[in-house]
Structures are given as structure tokens and as C-alpha cells.
Amino acid sequence: MSTLQFKNKWVLVTGASSGLGAEIARQLATKHGANLILLARRKEKLEQLKSELETDTGVAIKILIADMSKPNQVDQAIDQVLTEGNLYAAVLNAAVTYFGPQRELSWGDYETMLQTNVNAVVRMTNRLVEHFESSGKEGGLMIVSSMAAMIPIPYQAVYSGTKSFILGFATALRHELKNTNFSITVFTPGGIQTEMTGGEKFNNLRNWLAPVAEVANDSLKALQQRKLTYIPGFSNRIGNLIFKLMGRKFVLNQMARIYRKSLFNK
Ligand SMILES: NC(=O)c1ccc[n+]([C@@H]2O[C@H](COP(=O)([O-])OP(=O)(O)OC[C@H]3O[C@@H](n4cnc5c(N)ncnc54)[C@H](OP(=O)(O)O)[C@@H]3O)[C@@H](O)[C@H]2O)c1
């Protein structure tokens, strides 16, 4: 299987209006010369990024405004992506979290998180796999999960569940693929400096957060090299090993203590 080369190819990035998605888009344009389809809800942010990248790099950029928590908008968006463009790769990155006691998470917000982080990813993945399997075209899909998929985070219980779901789903699905020119990669970063971790609830956890540019760069290498899964950062890989060696109970107790301190300052 050859490595992916993005130059002059169309790549979809969901959640491209901020954080990791915006940086992945930026690096795809500046370092790889890819044409981009940028998807998110905030039109102004996407337009800003589009004009920045078009001016700096001359790549072609399309904007797609869609709410991934709404199934009809997910379907419309993926229809448009697959009918309009000669899609080469997709980065399914859009997600939301809730950081706080589970009992305070409303059912509505729970459903929005499930819809955005899980259902939209599965709906889009099904369509993308169908497209690449039936056409036999070369390409790649990267799904952004999290280390929370392997090491569940107390006070981000539902988020952890959603990230575990997509890790299990996508790694299993890769082994059903018949098109040997198409791959699925699951990227599982630890904490990153983005809007998601920008609030004061994360104040005590800031030292753990990696710069977004570094993480985006690692993610694109993993996608290019068609890795099955990839954890960026040496300390995250060590953390994952410690989790396996020391046992879940010990590590989760420590994590709950640290996260409680950050949330409630006690
Ligand atoms: N930050 C971390 O510490 C961390 C750690 C591990 C994994 N991750 C994962 O990395 C990915 C990116 O997160 P981030 O940290 O970059 O967060 P972020 O800065 O909050 O960005 C999230 C992106 O998702 C989009 N989004 C959210 N809800 C959406 C919806 N309903 N419809 C369409 N787009 C939606 C947002 O755009 P709009 O608001 O404009 O729609 C935004 O572009 C996520 O999958 C996250 O789980 C993050």
C-alpha cells in the first residue's frame, strides 16, 4: 500500500473552524498543497481560514456549513462532498465534550454529543467506505478519537465512551475493506491546547496539553503512512503503557483526583 500524497488532491476536514481541525487544514494546505473542503457550523471562522490559506498557498478551498448533530445535515454534507468533488481523503475530527459531573449533563446535551461524536462519524464513514470500495480509488480516512478511548476520563464519562466507540468501530471496519488502496486510521491524541480545553475548568491540567501544531503534524504523518491507530507524543505513549501495567483501578483513581481538583479546585 503506497503512502498518501495530498498535493492537488481534495481532502475533507470536519471541525475545521478551530483547534486541531483548523491546524490540520492549515498544514494540509501549506505543507502538502492539498485542496480542502472545510466543514463546521461557524461560517465566519471557515471564511477567515479559507482566505488565509488561499492567499498564502493558492490551493482551492470549499466551505461546507453543517451541524453534525443533525442527521439530515450530515447526509446533505456527505452527499455534496461525494457528488461534487474527486475526494481523496477525509479527516473526521468534529466533536464536542462535556467536562463535569455526569449527573449534571442534560439528556439533550448527551444526545447532541452522541450524535456529533458517534452517529455523524458512523454515517459519514459508511458513505465514504461505500464510495472508495465501489470505485476502487486510492484514498484514506482518518477518524480523530482520543486517548480517552483507552484511558476513560472521570468527569468526561460520556465523551470517553464516544471516543471508545469510534476507536473500536473504525479499527474493526478497516479489516473489512476490500479496496487495498484505501485505508482507515484512528488518531488518538492526549490533551491539546485548543478551544475544547480553553475554559477555566482545565486550568490545573494545562501542563498536560500539547501544542496543536505538533499534534496536527503527527496526525497527518499517521494518515499518510496509513497507520491503523496512532498515539502522538512520547509521554502519551508512556502513559498508555503505565495504564496497562499499573492496572485500571490505580490509574483511574489518580485521574479522578487530578480532574476533581481541576474542576472543583479541591
Ligand atoms: N483538545 C483536546 O485536548 C483533545 C484531546 C484528544 C482528542 N481531541 C479530539 O480532537 C478533535 C478536535 O477537537 P479540538 O480540541 O480541536 O476542539 P475544538 O477546538 O473545540 O474544535 C472542535 C471543532 O468541531 C466543530 N464542531 C463541534 N460541534 C459541531 C457540530 N455539531 N457540527 C459541526 N462541527 C462541529 C467545531 O466547529 P463549530 O463550532 O464551528 O461547528 C470545531 O471546529 C475532537 O475530535 C476531539 O475529541 C481533543
Task: Please name the defining characteristics of this protein.
266 residues; alpha/beta; Rossmann fold; seven-stranded parallel beta sheet; 8 helices; 7 strands; binds NADP nicotinamide-adenine-dinucleotide phosphate
Describe the structure.
This protein has 266 residues and is an alpha/beta fold. It is built from 8 helices and 7 strands; from the N terminus they run βαβαβαβαβαβαβαα. A 7-stranded parallel beta sheet has the order 3-2-1-4-5-6-7, with helices on both faces. Helix 7 crosses helix 8. The chain starts with 9 loop residues before the first strand and ends with a helix. The model has no long low-confidence stretch (mean pLDDT 95). NADP nicotinamide-adenine-dinucleotide phosphate (NAP) binds at residues 15-21, 40-42, 45, 67-69, 93-96, 116, 144, 146, 189, 191-192, 194-197.
Précis, in short:
The protein has 266 residues and is of the alpha/beta class.
CATH architecture: 3-Layer(aba) Sandwich
H/E element string? EHEHEHEHEHEHEHH
Q: Into how many domains do the coordinates divide? A: 1
Give the overall form: globular
Which strand order does the major sheet show?
3-2-1-4-5-6-7
- Total helix count? 8
Average pLDDT, to the nearest integer? 95
